[in-house]
Structures are given as C-alpha cells and as structure tokens.
Amino acid sequence: MSGEFEAVGTMAEAGMLARVAEPAAGEHSAAGHGKCLNCGTVLTGPHCHQCGQAAHVHRSISAFWHDILHGVLHFDGKFWNTLPLLAWKPGHLTRRYVHGERAKFISPMALFLFSIFMMFAIFSYVGSPNFTGGKGAEASADGINVAAGGDWRAEMREEIVRLESKIAERETSMNALAADDPQREKLAAQIADFKRDINRLSYATDGEPRYREVGTSDESVLSETFGFDSDVSTGVPGFDAWINRVASKAKKNPELLLYKIQSNGYKFAWLLIPLSIPFVWLVTLGKRGHRFYDHAVFTTYSIAFMSLLFIVVTLSVKFNIVPGLIVTAALFYAPFHMYRQLRHAYGTSRIGGIFRLTLLLSCTGIVVLLFLTILINLGLIG
C-alpha cells in the first residue's frame, strides 16, 4: 500500500513543482474593483498589476477542490492546448512559444518537471521497465511472478525469500551428515554462494548486506567492464588513492552502484537540458535569428515528449497492451518527432531537416553517453 501513496505523493509533488516553474500564466478571473486584498493597490482589471493576485478570492469548498485539480495537477486549458501540439506538431509549438504565445501553453520547464516526476511515480508503482519479453505485469526475473502494483524492489525481496529457503534446505542436509563427510564441504560452498546472492540483492533493497561474513557474487562484473582489477597509477598519489578506493567500492557492491545510478537518474535528469543545448546549436548552425533560449525551449519540449512516450511504452509492456505494436511505433515515431520539430521550429527544408536530424541523432547518442557517465561517477562517489 505504501507504493500507491508514494506514487500519488510524487505526482502531487510534480504538479506543485511544475506550478512553481509556471505560476498562473494567462489565467483569468472576475473583473477587479476596489483595492487588491494582498498589497492594497487600486485594481484596474481582473488581476493586480502590482503583485499579480487575482481580484476575486473565493472561500467555498468547491473552489478549494478546483484549486487542487487546477493548481496541483495543473489540469487546465493549457494542457489541452499543449499536449496535441507537442505530440504531432512540436515544431509549431516550439516556434509559437519562442515568439511570444506563452499564456496558452504549458511552459517547457513545467512540462519537463511534470513528465520526469510522473515517470518516477509510475515506475515506483509498477516497477522498473522490463523489455526482455516478459508477459505484462507478471514478468519478472528468474521466473518469480510479481503482482501488478508492486514496486521494483518486490522482485528482489521475493528472490531473497527463495534463496533463504534454499539455504535452510542445505543447512538441514548438512546437519544430517557426519562431521567428516566430504559432502558437507560442497553444501557449505553452496550456502556461501546463496548468501552472496542475498547480499547482492539486499544491497539494492536495503543498502546493506544481510550476511556480512561473505561478500557478493558479482564482484567481477564491474572489474571486467571498467578494468578495476589492477590499481590505477597516474603519478598523483592523492588522486590514485581516491580513484582506487572508489573503484574498490564499485567492485564490492555493483548492485548498490546500479541502484544509485537509477536513483540519480531521476534527481539529475535536468542535466540532459544543458548537455543537449550546445549540440542543438551545433546542429542548427546556419539558421540565423535563433538564440540559445530557442535551443533551450526546443530541447526541453523534446525531452519532455520523449519522457511521456517512454512512460506509454513502459506501461504497454508492463500490462501487456499490444507491446510489440507500441514499442515498434515508438521506435519509428521518436526520430520522426525530432524531424518535425527541427523542420518547423527552425524553418528547414525537407532535405535540410533530414540532414540535421541525422546529426541530431548522433549528438543524442553522445548526450546519453555523457549523462550515463555522470550518473556512474555520481554513483561511485556516493
């Protein structure tokens, strides 16, 4: 039940953060008269021109719930103005927002924050994405079925229970053997392996090992990937000591590192924007009249849409709603969406749009690699 409350709380937090990013733009109220109840300025319209407060303030229960729906979930006319354009005419949305049509649309940063927090809330509720061919909500690792609605740790906890039962079976068998029976050594080795597997999972679920007398079973994973078997020697003793200490942590607790990378992915998703802007500028060289602000709007709207698209794909896979069709459609539509946004936001020709799209896709790969590198380093340092 805690997963549901956590998801709802995260969604509400997303709405409030989006509201902070875009406070009451273009909204109307009743005509004003008299003085502003907030600052005392004489009103000349439906809002105070000094502090921005609406002239009409309500004190009814129905209006209170309207505020929750309107302010927290940000569910108003701007949503319906923005989402269709974002999905089908992203270039028009970008161009119109840049050139001043802002009161009728959700701002790119507000939409970005909401999409990222919505992604976090949904993944907390249904679990991490699984594109390995599992059957909807029952798909899980090692054949363990997890009920729909469990968080991503549920699979690991079920696996821990299964391994504990295996340890109990081996210990019972070992206790039934004579002290000098050679079979005891084999059973003891199996028990140690199971305990390492449990440590591997408990690092990710609880942040600490359950059996401190043994290590983890996957110590070689990061060693093989990043070359952590040998000590780093750069000639700078202080740096060498630090990097080797960090590498040792990663080697001992690879699952904890992966968990930190996943957690940091939500916290530092905003880094995708500053990482992407220089590459968008590079891709659009030769198109005059555009500033870095325009590239920031382009980038933020694009990332927000891709986040929403990823949510749709994940839900289709989790709940087995024509996953093959939706995943295939998303793979084709994502670059087509980028092409349409490039072409109409920057006024390129069809050939120019395709050429710039090719460059942008290459740059997107670089941005993702840089972002993952940052997450890995944050996980190692943390």
Helix residue percentage = 55-70%
Tertiary shape: elongated
Number of domains: 3
Radius of gyration: 27 Å
Average pLDDT number: 77
Biggest pleated-sheet summary = none
Describe this structure in words.
The chain has 382 residues and is mainly α. The chain folds into three domains: 2-25 and 78-126 and 264-381, no CATH class; 28-75, no CATH class; 142-244, no CATH class. It has 14 helices and no strands. It has helices at residues 2-21, 61-72, 77-88, 90-98, 108-126, 153-175, 183-206, 220-226, 237-252, 254-267, 272-283, 292-318, 323-346, 350-381. Helix 3 (77-88) packs across helix 4 (90-98), helix 5 (108-126) packs parallel to helix 12 and helix 11 (272-283) crosses helix 12 (292-318). The longest helix has 32 residues, at 350-381. It is elongated. The protein starts with a helix and ends with a helix. The model is unreliable at 26-30, 131-150 and 217-230 (pLDDT under 50).
